[in-house]
Amino acid sequence: MPPSVRLLQHTVRVTLFTRENCSICEKGKKVIQEISKRRTFDYRQVDVMASDQQQWKPLYEFDTPVLHVQRVFHTYSKPDIATEACKLMHYFDERQVEELIDEAEGHS
After folding, report:
1. 30-87, pLDDT tens digit by residue?
2. What angle do CA 47, 31, 103 make, to 5 degrees?
3. What InterPro entries does its record include (predicted)?
4. How many CA atoms lie less than 13 Å away from 66 in the CB half-sphere?
5. Which of 3, 6, 77, 82 has its CA at 20 to 30 Å from residue 24's CA atom?
6. 31 — phi, psi (to 5°)?
7. Predicted structure pTM score
8. Euclidean distance between CA atoms 90 and 73, whole angstroms
9. What is the number of other CB atoms lying within 10 angstroms of the CB of residue 57?
10. Is the distance from CB of 67 to CB of 33 less than 8 angstroms?
């Protein structure tokens, strides 16, 4: 029996790992903001230095900004299931981010 349509629903999650006083992070935020004017995705921003985000500090404290793009599947029986993140680090442009979003949407 084929899976129901509901089991096949997914969204694209874009997570920007950032920190305060990071000029490169501000440029990354502007790139995401421009893309969000023409694309739909779930956007999250994580300050790697925040006390509730300490799992990210050892990974990205000195590497911000880092962008994760993932396909997230939504099901009834399980919590959301995310694919492994495709990543861009430091400097990225709209074209690079949109290519990862296309890939996550299954348009590659």
Report:
1. 999 999 999 989 999 999 999 999 899 999 999 999 999 988 876 666 666 667 778 9
2. 95
3. Glutaredoxin-like, Glutaredoxin-like_YDR286C, Thioredoxin-like_sf
4. 16
5. 82
6. -60, -50
7. 0.82
8. 27
9. 16
10. no
